[in-house]
Amino acid sequence: MKKVRRHKENERETGQLTEPMDISSDDFTDFRHFILSKSKSRTKEQKILVEVMALKYRMEDYLASEQKQEISIGEFLRTLLKVTNIRQNRFAEYIGMRPTNFNKLLRGERRMSLEQAMIMESIFDIEPETWIGIQTKNDLRKLSKVKKQEYSNYNLKELIEK
């Protein structure tokens, strides 16, 4: 009982739920083979769903992060199309867009509408707030770079004093 209690206390302190595994051990090799066999037995659809889910988490991480490199909605969409093996023109027509307008969205020349974000949620199970949030984050970054000095001229103290 004391050993279990000590182990639970250790979990809370370190954040680890299990003991580290020796990667040179037979147990690790067996575990690795088990994971690989499960991975190989997935259907094509299951593999696509896993890739889409991974991209969803990447999008959410990007939205929450302070990383300097911008990733556009178009880049995320291109990756989704590549993972799902769907041609751009087919996808554009499926969601009711002209292929030329969809291409502009991919290149960042056109903004994603709220309705399009809702359609993306329906197709990819990626919330519209994520799509619009990424778009807004990138727009604010661009605007801040261009007009940062101009915006520094505005402040509450000055406004109150007048």
Report on the architecture of this protein.
The protein is mainly alpha-helical and 162 residues long. The chain contains nine helices and no strands.
Q: Main sheet, how many strands, which sense, barrel?
A: none
Mean pLDDT level? 87
As a percent range, the share of helical residues equals over 70%
Overall shape: flat
Span between N and C termini? 70 Å
Q: Could you tell me the radius of gyration in angstroms?
A: 23 Å
Poorly predicted ranges (pLDDT <50, ≥5 residues)?
A: none
Order of helices and strands: HHHHHHHHH
Number of helices, counting only DSSP H or I runs of 4 residues or more: 9
Query: Based on DSSP secondary structure assignment, what is the total number of beta strands?
Result: 0
Keywords:
single chain; 162 residues; mainly alpha; 434 Repressor (Amino-terminal Domain); 0% strand; flat
Quick gist of this model?
By secondary structure, the protein is mostly helical. The chain has helices at 2-14, 26-40, 44-64, 73-84, 88-94, 99-107, 114-124, 128-151, 156-161.
Give the topology, please.
Blueprint: H1 2-14, H2 26-40, H3 44-64, H4 73-84, H5 88-94, H6 99-107, H7 114-124, H8 128-151, H9 156-161
Helix pairs in contact: 3-4, 3-8, 5-6, 7-8
